[in-house]
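We modelled the chain as a single entity of 199 amino acids. Its sequence is:
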Amino acid sequence: MAEQIEALQKLAEQFARLPGIGRKSAMRLAFSILELSDEEAQGFANTILEAKEKVHLCPVCQSLTDKEICSVCGDLSRDRSTIMVLEDTKAVLSMEKVREYRGLYHVLHGVISPMNGVTPDKLRIKELLSRIADDEVGEIIIATNPTVEGEATAMYLSKLIKPFEIKITRLAYGIPVGSDLEYADEVTLYRAIEGRRDI
């Protein structure tokens, strides 16, 4: 039935283009939009357009913001000698929830992945090197995900940063809290051993 309603089908197809949204979820979202009043639907559409218009890259850290510079870069109480390098703005938001890290960030907008056509020149690496050269940076924390691409990107960055003679660290990865060792894969166990610390 829904397939016969062309406008509904087109709306569902737009939702299905979003990452993590399957066909069934897309159709549920499309029906939800149709249940909105005209005013609510117009408000929803306006909010999407406003976000597209106002959200841009922070000229300092390359994270997303709707201000001239993002709130982290604009916060003068942050430790400006430490920069954590992350894959995307979602990772920045996750780190900020922890409320323990008080340094700055730099967002790459991806990882090196030749299979997917992502080469180093397509990432925000040049901007990172510029910051390291211009600012008094004492440590770079590489916090790319522990995937093959994330590890390759971390290695690539560490080789580029080494000549600056500053401290380069990598986030420790290991066993999630509340899980059992028997269910952990070899890479996770290796990372847990490698990232061990004194207690």
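As a brief sanity check on the tokenised model: The longest strand covers residues 79-86. DSSP finds eight helices and six strands in the chain.
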